[in-house]
Amino acid sequence: MLGHNPRALAVLSLAAEKAGWASPLPARHGRGISVQFAYGSYTSQVAEVEVAADGSVKVKRIVCALDCGMYVNPDTIEAQIQGGTLFGLTAALHGSITFKDGRVEQSNFDNYLPMRIDEVPVVETHLIKNAEAPGGVGEAPTAIVSAAVTNAIFAATGKRVRSLPIDTNSLKSSS
C-alpha cells in the first residue's frame, strides 16, 4: 500500500527490520507498528510491550525510524525523538484528565503523573540520510507512539484499545 510513497515505505521497513519484526515473542508480549507523515517528516515506530495477567502494560522497547530530510546534528535528533516518544507515551499510559464537581482535578505538575524512570523503555533512533528539505523532529514521535503501543497490545492480547489513556482493567487475562 505504500509503493507510491518510497519515503514512508523506507521508514516502515527500517523500523521493522531494526526491531526484529519477524522474531517470535513470549506469550502476552507483542509488537505493534505505526507510520505517519507529519511535521514535514516521515516517522515509523515499533513498540514492544508486555501485558501482565493483571492488565498492567510494560513498554519494553521503542524502535523509531525517521526521515526528516537533510539534518545536521543526529545526537540532537535522537534526544528529540526520545523526549517526544516519552511525552506521548506518558499521555497514552497516564494522561487522564478527571473532573470533580464540574472542575478539572489536575491543576499542575504536582498532581499530574509523568512516566517514572522504571517505566521508561529503551528508545532506539535510526535516521535515513538524504538531501530532502528538512522537516520537524520533536513532535513526530509524540503523535505516533500511542498507535504503535496499542497495536502491540492487540498483538499481545487480541484486545483492541480504542481510547486513551490505556485502561489496564480491560486487558486483564480471563484465565
Nutshell version of this structure?
The protein has helices at 6-19, 74-94, 139-157, and strands at 29-38, 41-51, 57-67, 99-100, 103-104, 122-127. It is α+β, with helices and mostly antiparallel strands and 175 residues long. The mean pLDDT is 94.
Tell me what the structure shows.
- The chain has 175 residues and is an alpha+beta fold.
- It has 3 helices and 6 strands.
- The protein has helices spanning 6-19, 74-94, 139-157, and strands at 29-38, 41-51, 57-67, 99-100, 103-104, 122-127.
- The protein has a 4-stranded mixed β-sheet with strand order 1-2-3-6.
- β4 (99-100) and β5 (103-104) form a beta hairpin.
- α2 crosses α3 (139-157).
- The radius of gyration is 17 Å and the shape is globular.
- The model has no long low-confidence stretch (mean pLDDT 94).
Largest sheet: 4 strands, mixed
Computed over alpha carbons, the radius of gyration is 17 Å
**Order of strands in the sheet with most strands:** 1-2-3-6
User: Which geometry do the CA atoms define?
Assistant: globular
Beta-strand segment tally:
6
